[in-house]
Structures
1.
Amino acid sequence: MRTGLILFATCFLAATLLSGCWDQQLLKDIRIVDASGLDLDPEGKLQATSSVLEVSGSQSGNKSLDEIQTGKGNTTRQLRDILDRKISGIYSASKLRVTLMGEALARQGIYPYLDVYYRDPSSALNARIAVVEGTAHDILTFKKPGTKLVGEYFNKLISSAERRTIIPAVNLQLICPPMLDPGDAFALPYISKDTTSPSIYGIALFSGDKMTGTLKSEDSMLYLLMADKLAKTASVTLKINEEGSQNPEKYIAIDIQKLKRKLKVNVQNNRNIKVTLDLKLKIAVVEYAKDHLNDKRNLTQLDKKLSEELTRRAQVITQKMLQAKHDGFGIGRRVMAYYPNTWKKLHWLEDYPKVEFVPKVTVKIVKHGIMN
Amino acid sequence: MGFFKEMLNNNRRKSRPMPGKSTLTPRPVFPTVQENIQYLKEALFHTDDLVRQKVSIPGYTSEFLFMYTMCDQSKIREEIFKPILENKDGDLEGILISMRANKHDDLEKVIDLVVKGNAVLFIEGMEDCFVIEVGSSHVRNVTEPNNEKVVEGSHEGFVESVSINLQLVRKHIENRNLVVKRYKLGNETKIEAVIVYLQNLANPELIEEVDRRIQNIDADNISSSEFIEEYIEDKTFSPFPQLLHTERPDRVIGNLLEGRVALLAEGSPTALIMPVTFFAFYQSPDDYSFRSLQGSFIRFIRVCSFVFAIALPAYYIAVVSFHYEVIPEDLLLPIKSSIENIPFQPILEALFMELTIELLREAGIRLPGPVGQTIGIVGGLVIGDAVVKAGLVSNTMIIVVALTAIASFVVPSHEMSASVRMLRFPIMVAASLFGFIGIVYSLMIILIHLCSLESFGTPYLAPIAPFRWKDLKDTIIRMPQWALRQRSQDPAPQKLNQQSQPVEEERSDD
Amino acid sequence: MINVRDQITPGQLAFLVVQTQIGVGLLMLPSQVHTAAQGDAWISVLIAGLLVQFFIVVLWCLGRRFPSLTLYDYLPALLGRYIGKLVHLVYAAYFILVSSYIIINFAKTIRDWVLIETPQWIVIGMMTSVCIYLVRESLRTIARFFVLVFFCNIALIIIVSCAYLHVNFLYILPVGQAGIWKITKGVHETMAALAGYEILLICYPFVKGGSVAKIKAVVFANIFSTLLYAFAVFTSLIVFSPQELKLLPQPLLYMVKALGFKLFERLDLYFLSLWMVVATTSAIGYFFMASKGVANLFRQQSNHRKAVPYTAALVFIIALIIQDPLLIDTIGKILSITGYVFIIGIPFVLLMISVLFNIHEARGRPR
């Protein structure tokens, strides 16, 4: 019996060793795609643009370049095959860093185009995703400053904006739950084309998987604060004085230190939904030309002015959200969780714009740098 | 197919009756000197180093016989001629006493003694012969063993003589419980082997088992302790050593005090310690001469090095040929650019480099010291650099292989180090076939093997499997000496406690 | 009567049970229970764990009446020679089928996630060979190995905990949304994943110590498995929105796939490697029960080792034959229903017979 076992093991080993490695995919054979863009051309065809890394084989000092390849087709997967034919080596999107979506495509709905990313076991679910003004192809082929790789460039561009709470920290996986959830929504970074370089414009608001609006960077920061998503830092410059001998004296720059948000959803008469959003900010003044921040009266006044200004802005933002049918604060989810009976009667897409938002921002200055 | 069975069951053979060891019938001493000498010469086939010499003891015709290759001339003068000269008028009895002669009446036994380096004195008309010890002994000095150096602590090492080795052990354990059991091993070589243990600690069942296995050895050529190992270990075809080799008396003593048994044999400075666990191979006397924090740190690193040495190349192969997704973004480009133009598959690259390192190591051992170093430099630096420049092996692979080599040489035991170096090849192959799945598969097989392995009835992987929380204190880390209140359970000592509870002392600083 | 080398401690029994319980179910369970019980899936898991505790008590009562006999040994005494043999055969077949099912599911998951091109028989063969290699050893060695690889469970928990960086607790509210009927269905789904404690039927006589220590060990083991499953299900529920969860067959893997840190990216590959060990131990547990059954089929109280190659051959062939995903699903359904019969139905009947006719072990021999 032992002999039988040994024979079996030998045969098994031999068969395994001789037949080779089926799934082997050598790192040296693949071509890494670090950024890809998806666009919808006017005829409704899908256009994909990929930046493929060109790794020089020299052992010392890696000066890497990338080439941009474009193709047209019907689905994302099909385009991978088309691009694979254009490049030497095996097309691999499993180290993708950034996916850019053209605005036209984003307004049509992004899920069908992302399906392959979600289905493929080797895909990079932690790739960042952003919407661009115009087409992704234009932005990817834009002559970029310096010699940074395209993927790395956009990756850093987006991640630095994430740090400053201008855009939400999202990746392919993180947007998936809200995208499929009727009671939630997500927002993506929105990149616009400047004359000299791509820049972060703000965020693109989504409803379901369709883009429905945008917010500028100052607004997007407040939006993120209202969504309780303060990243490392968040700073904003506000106009608070009308008088002042010089222009800078009219402005104040603040840095948000601490954030406390209270979101309450109230359903009245089973139908009317009222959302009170109470935002308490503790801020540091980082630039204020008029000085004298040690005066208590001055401070209270400033607090009050800032609160009013921010509240006003918050109201504008919520209005925009309602217009875009963008449920970024997950109001629907809350209704589902706390008022399940109401939820059953609602048709959320139509009922959401009827929600009444009452935002209130309270600001308190806690720091003012090393000068009064 | 019985061959396989025989092979795999090597040491599980049942205790069978003692093999017919050549027992010759006793041969009484002849009455005349001439006859005796003739008989001995015949028995030793007239070997040319057998020398006969007459001595003049007043009143007796006497002659003695010895093998000059085995005897010390000055001892012969001291032991044989001097007593005779000093006792010119004395009686035979007095002379023999001052010669320190032993009476024997069986010539067959005498032959064995002559071969060992004794002189035998025949006296005309007597029914006994007298054996006088005049053997010369060439024993090396007690020096620190080259292969087990320590930074701090005792620098003594065993030598090739059992009696000196036993003395080294006894010197440190002045205890009446230290028991020595002697065996004559090898039907042709007949070397002396001893097992040493502490009667009040070592488990009697263990002693019995060791005794049984040694008694069962039936081989012509046993010439040192390493020969004995394969006869008495549990599974010869396991990649892991099941007996600890050491040339350090302090290591032997430490193990004896834990209730283990040590085997020493004439002809080799190596003591075999049994039973051992896997972690014993990762312990070094240095751990105990350092303070516990430092000792723990070093030992922990050593145990980690096992994982490194066994799995690092396999992990690298799996990553670059299957799962490049796991490489962090910032590392991806450097790694990719270093392997971009390598013509071989990673597994071939790795095998090539690993084998090169093995060759270098082997070459370095054989060559004399200074040349060995040169080989190391030529091999390590020149080949390493040239191979990368020639584009045969990638930079990262060199780093991986070098790290692995260092990690495998950290092990304080050479046998374990060799096992580790051997074991990583199958894992590498598995990794090149199935990626991570292959690595996990082969590691599982190794773990299962380790779990099933036993050394003289002690689970090899104790105290991890079976899990013994209390014994962990001296396994991966080393707790302070005063905390090692109990011996580890794995050799099943008769007495667990080795210290009393520490007394909480009131400490005053003034 | 029981070989000393086969004896294990109650502590080892606990690990034996845990490792047999936690297996392939860990990956599949969250989506299965979620399909049945939606946001209340975690409640289902907890209830199922509680129910299992009662089952364990029944099995223990039965084992206690025959302290030195395995299930296979006292079947004939309770059911008569022929029916006893028949039930014995069915039990062995059931265990063989379960081991095959585990191995099939394992191979399928591996194929879906990493080794896409590798032929199935290789993965199945690898798994089977590990099983053979361990089950050939004594029960004590098996238990030692199980204790050793328990750390894999801990590592899995740690990896999954990383997912708590992005969670939304609102997904599980309101508690009780699914209703009792759906929760019950969820309990049914969980029962199959929690199976494995029936190893008590076979291992009871091999455990040293009193009966109280034994039940304590198994109860603790079950508490651990239940909590681990509940943790897995709960985490999946709060990480994925209900709509997305419906699309994912292995939510836990999917969840860690998106995680990445500076040094480690794509945690799913590491997760899968660790899970492989956990799944193997589960298969080994059933493999042991099966080979014990096969061995005893021919000779009373013989050693399970002798039957290992035959059992392995059967398991391997069954795993090779069943490849159609729909067939696998069907078998899974059949197993989860017949599971009740084998795990609790028959033992309960046996216990009743034993109590009613006052049959129990006397001086090491069944009457």
2.
Amino acid sequence: MAEPLSVDDKNFNEVVIEAKTPFLVDFWAPWCAPCRAIAPMVEELAGEYEGRVGFGKVNVDENPKAATDYGIRSIPTLLLFKEGKPMTQIVGLRSKAELKKHLDATLT
Amino acid sequence: MGNSYQLIIIGGGPACLSAGLDATRARLSTLLIERAIPGGQIINAELVENYPGFPHGISGAELGSLMEQQATKYGLEIIMAEVEGVEVGEEEKIVHTSEGQYRAKALIIAGGSEHGKLGVPGEEELRGRGVSYCATCDGAFFKDQVIAVVGGGNVAINDALFLTRFASKVIVIHRRDQLRATKILSEGAFARPKIEFLWDTVVESIGGDGQVRELGLRNVKTGTESKLEVSGIFVAVGLRPNTGYLEGVVALSQEGFILVNDQMETGVPGIFAAGDIRAGSARQVSSAVGDGATAAISAERYLSSI
């Protein structure tokens, strides 16, 4: 099963911006409890959308540039990229059903 | 039938885990339905200091996780799904969720509450760009900056105290002229040089171009309007019960909380409510846990009577 890739300040461009498919980035940090809550949902979605949407995780504690570049000041934030551009920003803990709606909307 | 239980518990906070523990120890086949992660609102609390048994306090996330471990020890089943509706059939209650239907003879509704919003211009647009509802998640983004906390209850004051670790100044904006928070927390906040208070003041707007820059304020006593420059605003006002899907199913208070008697019984036989979601709750972890136990015992009594 596909797992979210580890994305950092160095490989962000290559992995996310140049991705051939839409790409969802999960911005998180180890101290954030709702981030731990959303992580298993993102992992499940990575399996369910394998081949159609790419998935990655950015630890904002270790990679401040990626978070700063996109003005992220709240975690968990999920940023959904399409053709290298951030299309949808989802802030805070959401249900898996709601996340699927956003992914499906991007794919149509 | 795989989707049929004696008892279904809606929600995953302390009230639910307590109810789940007592129900499974009474050997009721019990399913708990939680939308995200067991633990409830407390998982965002840095330190819970008023739950008995932990004299040095315990992190909310750890307390939630310990409660889950204990609750599942006796066979409590937990699934992740969003509850979309509840239907009262002749013999069973049917719970409609994002992952399908589940049935049970008895139901404990303990889906808690969510943080309230200010409902002012700029709040939605700047969410995640300086507007936050979780101090422990987002505090670190505001190192050496001036930020505001809105509210005067325990969550607001806890947030303000926590945020002094990062911010250069924390301004607590409260619509009344005194705090509602517990005395011991209030005293701590008054003694902290980094914390300032703006009394009798409400936030009317949040402004900024892509990032929070300033707040529009109004003094409720004098009517005076003013601006305050901040780079972040943490909202800790009130709680809204998660009862949207229950209208017409059980009786709700004007504010949307579930009305119950002292046995946690709603007006519908076999449906119980517990914790923050019920009207009149003290909204503490300890009171939620007590509610959960009461609801489980009432549910057990109901199941043996039918």
